[in-house]
Design brief:
Length: about 200
């Protein structure tokens, strides 16, 4: 627990140090965009001539552009949990994407002979006791928002609005909506459908 708080504190200090010379009213905005399955060359921001992403490029030009980063896992839920908590996915006992097969208290299972990776039990939520990046930013005086995929819980008591975010659009148990065009085929939390 203490190492988690220390990790989050160090991460928060790093993020917030960008605004050391700023007043409370003039803190820099922190926008983190996490996209599943996006390659490093899948935006014009990072050099693609095929994909045109002018808004991302403008954000990068007006702010900071990071060029070296590594995900803690090749899967969505463990990566998101790691970013939110500052912990490795195995420490959180969340090593695969959350599905209906995930459990509250995973246990180690015996290896399976001649199996590629064997059976795995993985946690079905990120515990509320985890001190999250959003909570660290709030402690630093920021207002926080989560927009889009959460995929860190099946039950609403573990959704983004209970993990330090002031405003949430989406952020439920689904990996994403069935479509991204209004009117949406299944409702997106806190987002009214626009015109057809």
């Amino acid at each position: 627990f203490m190492n988690n708080r220390l990790s989050m504190l160090l991460l928060s200090v790093t993020l917030l140090s960008m605004g050391v010379s700023h007043t409370a009213e003039n803190k820099p905005n922190v926008i983190m965009i996490l996209v599943d399955d996006m390659g490093w060359m899948d935006s014009s921001t990072y050099g693609s001539r095929y994909y045109q992403t002018p808004n991302m490029s403008r954000l990068a030009k007006e702010g900071m552009l990071f060029t070296d980063a590594y995900a803690a896992s090749p899967l969505c839920s463990p990566t998101r949990a790691s970013i939110m908590s500052g912990q490795y996915p195995a420490r959180l006992r969340m090593t695969v994407a959350i599905t209906s097969k995930s459990v509250s208290e995973p246990k180690a299972l015996n290896p399976v002979q001649k199996a590629y990776c064997g059976r795995v039990e993985s946690k079905n939520h990120m515990p509320l006791e985890i001190y999250t990046l959003a909570e660290a930013l709030k402690d630093g005086g920021y207002t926080t928002a989560h927009i889009g995929k959460w995929h860190l819980a099946h039950k609403s008591k573990h959704y983004a609005d209970h993990q330090g975010f002031d405003f949430v659009i989406g952020g439920a148990h689904l990996p994403g909506p069935r479509d991204y065009y209004s009117p949406y085929k299944n409702a997106i939390r806190n987002l009214k459908a626009g015109p057809k």
